[in-house]
Amino acid sequence: MLLGILVVLCFIPAADVTENKILVAQHPLLVVANRTATLVCNYTYNGTGKEFRASLHKGTNSAVEVCFISWNTTKISSNSNKEFNCQGIHDKDKVIFNLWNMSASQTDIYFCKIEAMYPPPYVYNEKSNGTVIHVKETPIQTQEPQSSMPLWIMVAVTGVLAFYSMLITMVFINYWQKSKKNIYHQSDYMNMTPRHPPHQKNKGYPSYAPTRDYTAYRSWQP
Q1: Number of Cα atoms under 13 Å in the Cβ half of residue 222
Q2: Which H or E run contains 78?
């Protein structure tokens, strides 16, 4: 009889531990090419807990908590580390962590942690193998600045300006040539009317010829 009681007492703790154990399974590798990642944490739990908390941790020692989600039968709440863009979603026997705007510096191994918070006993999963999230560098694409004015408009405007420039130049050259010709004709005119010496009678000079003043030709003497 005593032996039977001892056997029963030995199996009771083992059954309790098995009932409250949480197991987590993760995909080993996740390659991110568009800066967006979806990490799925599948878990199994056979306990009687009604309030849970699931969190995502970064690094081999899980030093950084990226984000978490907690839920019970009536309420769900979540929060994210300010250095990450992360949101957790609970769906039956799995928790989905969505991350976006990730950078290459956030490439690391990530671990899921599932906790049964209430009622006691408090239970959480053993550390899983984790998921390596590899974030690829996004090449920076530089675009050449595009002109706000279409090419054909620029060509048309340039052509009009060139035409008017040539027209103004031709008008100016024509006006300059005419002005130069008028000045040339005016400088060629000379009064050819004959003159006769002063104090002399008219000797063969026409009556209309004015008297020539020879004093203008005398050399100046001091």
Answers
A1: 0
A2: strand 76-80
Question: What's the pLDDT at 15?
Answer: 41
- Quote the CA–CA distance of 77 and 51 in Å, as a whole number: 12
Low-confidence ranges of the chain (pLDDT < 50): 1-17
How far CA 124 is from CA of 52, 65, 70, 102, in Å, comes to 10, 16, 13, 28
Give CA–CA dist 160/157, Å, rounded. 5
- Which helix H or strand E contains 11, and what residues bound it? helix 2-19
H or E element, residue 17: helix 2-19
> What whole-number distance in Å separates Cα of residue 5 and Cα of residue 49?
29
d(CA 98, CA 40): 9
Calpha distance 94→23 (Å, rounded): 11
